[in-house]
């Protein structure tokens, strides 16, 4: 129970909850399945808590694996003592464990090794005792021509090398240095001389310093990237005098003699040559890990919000991938997203075949009974939107812009080639734009999440950790919404609990060969889809118009018998129970509690019966940018404009206002009150009203505000907002945050 107690304490839950969760995970259950269908076992732990248990148990098992290897190594060296074994077994972190092992860790040939080979270890021991003796005479005892110890100073230097290594390997010293670096260290960055022009995008970091403990993730990653690209020099150390004082306090005895002086020299050498580089590396790894975790958290949350964007639903859609010189690629899609027609139109310069393009659009709208037109928000997007809106189409036809980030990635992918082997890349891109409008989740799962454009430094963070977090996010979103098994793509089915790529492909193949599934039970006929996979997946798969009414709901098949008993007790059918609120109100849940089914599951079932298969996503709302504002040159300070949040970072939110360059609403301008986390105020795809604060066309920077009176602190000039900010202290972030943010949206 050691793991369970530790994790329970860390997460603030009960040990039995953790134990049950670990058993389910070890048995092959997924996070979505456990949090949805095993609430009684886990005590209603949610997805976040279940995932936390999973990740922590993996870390602790890795720690124990390393502990066993270290115990074995020390035993084989014949150096194990009861005290050492107790220390190794009691180490609770990897760094503590490695500190204890460091003196016993096989090393390359070091200065201390060479000194030992020269027989100088006894001298080092005598000096390190720090008693008073004749240092010169003692050192001369170790002179040896054969071992190349020719002078007393050479002997003393060798002894100091050994002492320096002892100090470096002292677990208490290392722990104090680690704490000092983290609490009092600073990140200091300087531009490499001669690279000022090349490194202009890192200008804010040419002479920058801030405490390690408070440096936000985006600045840590920015400085590291500048260093990696050989534009910046980056240090991360505390004051040397402070470090030396702490080491001396740990190893220097309260005495004054020549041996103590030698130890002090060894302390300085140990710090500069061994401890400082080691601690700097370790602290930079720790801060990088922390920065990665924050960047990944932000990315995952943005991705979740994007995936769960409101779907238009099953409607006939025209999708347009806009362009000037190469024209606009236009496709027509059926209500299930099936490709019906392709056409290229040229309404803009240089061809300017506007009348012809207009006739084509109107003809196709009528021919395919188009209900909505999706226009990509890339180059020529606003111009194409204005062109379509000028055609006098029926008011019932929705015209809206769609974020096309990643559409080009999809169009060149193997997924797109398999779906549309005979279509050009640009045509596939238009199809993706249209399908994103119909169902963002179903379409976006086909693209590598890193290509969707809602991250922050996604190429600089730990790629394995990023992939795991994003996979978790996609799986959570897919299973939270549920999947219609008869229309879902292989890519969407892949993320269903318990399936994966192989079983997803088998389902698609079975469906193609045998026709649509008529029941969940039929899934068991799919090759290699056994009882375990069925248990994990069935509740998240929907079958519209199935024989059994519960097959279209989130009620798990293992609970059908229970629901049928509820209906029978009320002398009604399951279908009648689902359609009658009056009947459902008569159900007394406590009558159906058993050893395996408790009130949490019964409440879920009752809620699902009232809204079977309900899509939890918001209802689609039409959005339009401000007419006449199509480029940055149309912007004026003080303009109030509608926009759509495209990306959220730790320091603010990026908003598309329809000018082909997203603007930044800094954290300090998200609301009239203090905001610590942007997610308190905004979400990806949210429609917002913003005020233009600053426009820098040469550097493509737009500063926006969501405050009710954004210029209140700037002063007024003849009743008009002053475009130049007053030099006031920004309590929520430095100007470096804002400038760094506007400099390309971190890898987008």
UniProtKB/TrEMBL annotation:
Residue ranges constituting the S1 motif domain according to the UniProt record: 638-707
UniProt-annotated stretches for the region Disordered: 706-736
Coiled coil: 149-183
Keywords, in A-Z order: Coiled coil
Keyword Coiled coil (UniProt): yes
Pfam families, sorted: HHH_3 (PF12836), HHH_9 (PF17674), S1 (PF00575), Tex_central_region (PF22706), Tex_N (PF09371), Tex_YqgF (PF16921)
Top-rank taxon: Bacteria
InterPro entries, A to Z: HHH_9 (IPR041692), NA-bd_OB-fold (IPR012340), Ribos_protein_bS1-like (IPR050437), RNaseH-like_sf (IPR012337), RuvA_2-like (IPR010994), S1_domain (IPR003029), S1_Tex (IPR044146), Tex-like_central_region (IPR055179)
UniProt KW Coiled coil keyword: yes
UniProt-listed CDD domains: S1_Tex (cd05685)
Name of the molecule in the record: Tex family protein
Species in which this protein is naturally found: Algoriphagus jejuensis
